[in-house]
Design a protein that fits this description.
- The protein is an alpha/beta fold and about 180 residues long.
- The chain has one domain: 5'-nuclease (Rossmann fold).
- The protein contains 10 helices and 5 strands, in the order E-H-H-E-H-H-E-H-H-E-H-E-H-H-H.
- It has helices spanning about 10-15, 20-30, 35-40, 50-60, 75-85, 95-105, 115-125, 130-140, 145-160, 170-179; strands at about 5, 30-35, 65, 110, 130.
- A 5-stranded parallel β-sheet has the order 3-2-1-4-5, with helices on both faces.
- Helix 5 (about 75-85) runs antiparallel to helix 6 (about 95-105).
- The protein is globular.
- The two termini are about 20 Å apart.
- The mean pLDDT is about 95.
């Protein structure tokens, strides 16, 4: 897979909170796309250390920020998702909406953990999608981490209130094996 990965705030911040964004750079250097709305959310003064980590990714060209210009298909979809979704669809956050709009209109992979908010759009738009769990699984398969290291990262992410869907990385892997 060589497509860009469009990260929403939750998925990207799972790695930023535990200061392990290096896994992302090892797996996806140059393919990490941070929508401007996500960068803005991570620029909150109360979490300035996360912005500093993102700025490091940008400075070494591991990632890039993408702006959604007005009068584009991305902008039309973004506005719809944050303010006037189709009947039966919930309004979603700016970061999620920007990542979805960019992934759909520019082609690429949506990186998001918030299945409750995005699942309907992933299905409706036929988006490729990865979660933090899938990223860690790929890191395991490529020998970048061990399962024990994955469990430690998982626990650290949970301590930072990241929603990952399983109590441990091992549980996540087991569920994937059974699926």
């Amino acid at each position: 897979m060589t497509e860009p990965l469009f990260f929403d705030t939750d998925c990207l911040s799972a790695f930023l909170w535990v200061n392990n964004q290096s896994l992302l750079t090892q797996l996806y250097r140059g393919r990490i796309v941070i929508p401007e709305a996500v960068y803005t959310e991570l620029s909150n003064p109360s979490i300035i250390h996360l912005k500093a980590r993102v700025d490091t990714l940008l400075a070494d060209n591991s990632a890039r920020v993408e702006i959604i210009e007005t009068d584009t298909a991305e902008y039309t979809l973004y506005r719809k998702l944050i303010s006037d979704p189709d009947p039966g669809h919930a309004i979603i956050g700016n970061g999620e909406a920007a990542a979805i709009a960019l992934a759909k209109e520019r082609g690429g992979v949506l990186a998001s953990n918030n299945m409750r908010d995005i699942a309907v759009y992933v299905k409706e738009f036929g988006l490729q999608h990865v979660t933090t769990g899938e990223i860690l699984k790929e890191a395991l398969e490529k020998g970048l981490i061990t399962e024990d290291a994955g469990n430690l990262l998982w626990q650290d992410m949970l301590k930072k209130r990241r929603r990952l869907g399983s109590p441990t990385f091992s549980d996540y892997l087991e569920a994937k094996r059974k699926a």
